[in-house]
Amino acid sequence: MPLVIEQNKNKRIVDINGGAQVRFSTTSISLGIVSVGTAVTKTFTFTSTGKAPPVALSVVTNCACATAHYTQAPVQPGKSGTITVTYKATRVGAISQPIYVTFAGVNQQLGLRLIGAAR
Fold first, then answer.
1. Out of 2, 73, 74, 111, which could bridge 14 as a Cys pair, Cβ 3.0 to 4.6 Å?
2. CB-based burial, 52-66: b 16+ in 10 Å, e otherwise
3. Could you tell me which of 103, 119, 113 has the C-alpha nearest to residue 42?
4. 111 near 119, Cβ under 8 Å?
């Protein structure tokens, strides 16, 4: 289970078993106002800040409107990895798209989010 040791200013550091640690630059990204049917791509960046390299095992979205690609190789300390999410609005209204990340050595998912509005 991860230990969140900082959660200020929309940033999150997570300790992972075995000495790995990741720090996300943000856990929420604004899409702004998007047109229905238009795909928008945003990237979450995380940095390996521990003594061992973290490994992202999975990145999952909860609908077909979003797809995710992520750094699957171990991220060496001091280096960065990415989670790139493409979102395509299918209806008019508010957007609050969760993305769930699982790292090796952690039995809990880390939540990220895309927010915005579709017209």
1. 2
2. bbbbbeebebeeebb
3. 113
4. no
